[in-house]
Amino acid sequence: MDTRPVVVVGGGPGGMVLGYLLARAGVRTTVLESHGDFARRFRGDSLHPYTLELFDQLGLAEELLRVAHHPARYFRFHTPHGPVTVADYAKVRSRFPYVALMPQARFLDFLAARAAELPGFELRMNTRVTGLLRDDDGVVTGVRHRDGEVRARLVVAADGRFSKVRALAELPATSLGAATDLLWFTLPRRAGDPPDADVDLYFARDNYLGLLGGTDTWQVGYSLPKGGYAAAREAGVEPIRAAVRELVPWLADRVDQLAEFSDTTLLSVDISRVHRWHRPGLLLIGDAAHVISPVGGNGILMAVQDAVAAANHLVPLGAGPVPEEVLAAVQAEREPAIRAVQAQQLRIERQAAKARERGRSIAPPRVLRLITAIPGVRGRAARRNAYGPNPPALITP
């Protein structure tokens, strides 16, 4: 049976970017996606300047940005004391001083079409992995799926936070704790909506609304205390509508389009990571290795950077064997950045939980307004969010 150099399980941003980078460099790669298309409810939509610059380096940015998207130039908190601009992407030195909010399915469709032009790339849809192949020494040598098997020198698990491959490899993820869950829903975007509304958090005393602007819709996240879903479902949709009317009054004219509680989708917020991202013949990247809270929208960025780091280490090996020390090197390069991002998110989660326990407001303190008024602070915050800590540079072959 033919043995491929690399099989990637999972056709999300991390898996597809890695598949493209490897095939572009001449490393024959097969990506296995369990679904028949890329459409999901409430997948991350944020393409940061780092990702856009990567696609520019690949010669794809101009074409990618023809896909419908909304360029988000600000990240703001709206508190009882007034709005605070936390990050101003116009201050980022980049050809792309914004976050492109593009439906993930459109992004992945674009990438799949470009990857299909490469002779070494194969994408198999509707291919759900059911098992791992191993040799007599326990080295992973491929995957088993419902219709057969695929052998490979390396299997990369990019199959998300509920990774089947991770479970099969017995690499457990450790939850680091999250104090919040989110109910996601959409409302239509209209021509008269505030033009500078991009990525916004609107704070009440004990919860918040997150707003992401798309080309024709707003994605809205209504926060709940962790484990509060049953109580929210019992209360029904009206408290959610009331929160929208109070916190985002310019959406009041359409909030009744949120007709029933079933129009919302629960996103159970998690912050977790795997202690070891690899076994002989197997590497985990993206959410399979570490889960980032959706607050801040860094999950796609971290997955893409994992893919770049992995490609930098794997391309020089070509179709040859992949020593486990190479896989360990990928983790060693990326794990400090992941830990830094998660540590920041955990601080926010713990502060919110402590405020709730003490009956205090979870809104950021007034001093934040003074801090963000200091020259350079908004630009530095935007740059940190645009690139993340220690972003890997693609080594082109």
Automatic annotation (TrEMBL):
Top-level lineage group: Bacteria
Signal peptide stretch: none
InterPro entries linked: FAD-bd, FAD/NAD-bd_sf, PheA/TfdB_FAD_monoxygenase
Alphabetical keyword list: Oxidoreductase
Sequence ranges assigned to domain FAD-binding in this UniProt record: 5-342
Molecular function GO terms recorded: FAD binding; oxidoreductase activity
PANTHER family cross-referenced by the UniProt entry: 3-(3-HYDROXY-PHENYL)PROPIONATE/3-HYDROXYCINNAMIC ACID HYDROXYLASE, FAD-DEPENDENT MONOOXYGENASE
Name of the protein this chain belongs to: FAD-dependent oxidoreductase
